[in-house]
Amino acid sequence: MTCLSEVLKFNEKFVTNNQFEAFQTSKFPNKKIVILTCMDTRLLELLPKAMGLKNGDAKIVKNAGAVISHPFGSVMRSILVAVYALQADEVCVIGHHECGMTGMKAEAILASAEQRGISTEQIRNLKYAGIDLESWLTGFECVEDSVENSVDMIRNHPLLPKDVLVSGMVIHPSTGKLDVVVNGYSQDRAETVSS
Q: Which has fewest Cβ within 10 Å: 24, 82, 114, 182?
């Protein structure tokens, strides 16, 4: 049985048994926060639990590394939609230790692409067309610096209102421990949030 078949078989029972009722909420985040985090599988349930979030509390945007690579790309657009259309008034970037983007090099991704059938000619054509594959496919060296960079890009975006708080944290994927990198309430790096 394929993964899709398993999903659809489960889904049929889920809907028939009204299991969706436990998750019903509105499209507006109860805690008025949008979170940018990594797509790492270890964070799927851990991150919301470690933050005390339940269904309906937050808008969560995920990508590889919790990185904003372009100020006018889809990640930043999602954050702005959450702010302007969905009533979020706070943004939190959450990277994690042991991230696959740490130390990732474009050469390794491109070599893997060739092994999976992407020709050297296709890669060369993209480069000739002005696509900077090296920058686009390269990760980061330090997760804290990456989080700080994404926070800075969000905070200084020309379309983000100045009253929207932007914080940054790093979570440990084994324990769920959160460490503050940027405290949006004080706008200072690595200042601990007081309760």
A: 24
The reply to whether 145 sits in an annotated binding site is no
**Confidence (pTM):** 0.89
What are the pLDDT digits (tens) for 124-150? 999 999 999 999 999 999 999 999 999
Q: Is the pLDDT of residue 175 over 60?
A: yes
Contacts 24+ apart (CB under 8 A), 164-167: 164/83, 164/88, 164/89, 164/90, 164/91, 165/89, 165/90, 165/91, 166/90, 166/91, 166/92, 166/93, 167/90, 167/91, 167/92, 167/93, 167/193
Per the annotation, does 40 bind a ligand? yes
Domains of the chain: 26-99+141-188 (3.40.1050.10), 105-138 (no CATH)
Least confident range from 47-56, 111-120, 181-190: namely 181-190
